[in-house]
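Continued from yesterday's entry.
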Amino acid sequence: MTRTAKCCCGKASITVEGEPTLNAICHCSSCRKRTGSAFGWSTYFPDDKVSNKTGEMRLYAKDGALGYNRYFCANCGTTLYWKSFGLLPDQTGVAAGCFTDNPLPAPNLSAQDADRCPWLTLPDGWLTT
């Protein structure tokens, strides 16, 4: 299975092969600010399954053990992917909502669940961290 995540304007994309090793929503303040929503939907793929990064990208970098390099479209600002320094350093995180042509299955993990908005409920059977 090959999927391509695209930004809002279509000028930037990233292609991945296979299923994600992690498919989760995250309630941390960084993910909420990145998306402007109650959570971020994040997927991770091994670096050797990532290919064909296209378009002009800009970088937002956060230093530290839990830091990351976040790549977003230079034209429309959509965050497409990131590399985390502490979490899964041999994998690439991809904004799951950007896979619109061939969507991913529903996530089943809620990360940073203690920070979840109190009005947001989860389906039965989800894992939480």
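--- second protein ---
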Amino acid sequence: ILAVFLVLAILLTGLGVWQSLKKSPTAKSPTAKVNNYDFKLYIAKTPKDKEIGLSKYEKLSKDMGMLFPFEKPDYYSFWMKQMKFPIDIIYIRDGKIVAIHKNVSPPKKADEGMLIYKPKEPSNMVLEINAGLCDKYKFKEGDKVSLTNI
């Protein structure tokens, strides 16, 4: 009985160690820092990821965002198709904010026309965060955006 108990204890300890190693990522999560505020990022890498964006989520925690990187600066347009919550859309070029669309709400009805959001000047990435955070944290055009682990 003692041997069975000892084997069981060793197995449970090994399982606990394995679970903790499995949960801790080897690489750090991608983040964006705007002013002194950090956002953990989902990255929209593929054209399909960019098409779906945040519409697959019911909500977004206040320290999360989605980054849409592009090959070259251009006037990339965004809409709120199938979105479930409002967002702030931040257009970035070479590490600086070039335009912000604040408190962009999803359509109230499925058949409602879609507004298209574009920057005033070309951008090479877009950051989407929860609506109201740009005002709360006083983000503005010209603010620096630092990215890590992208």
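The chain has three helices and seven strands. Residues 91 and 126 are 5 Å apart (CA to CA). Will compare against the first tomorrow.
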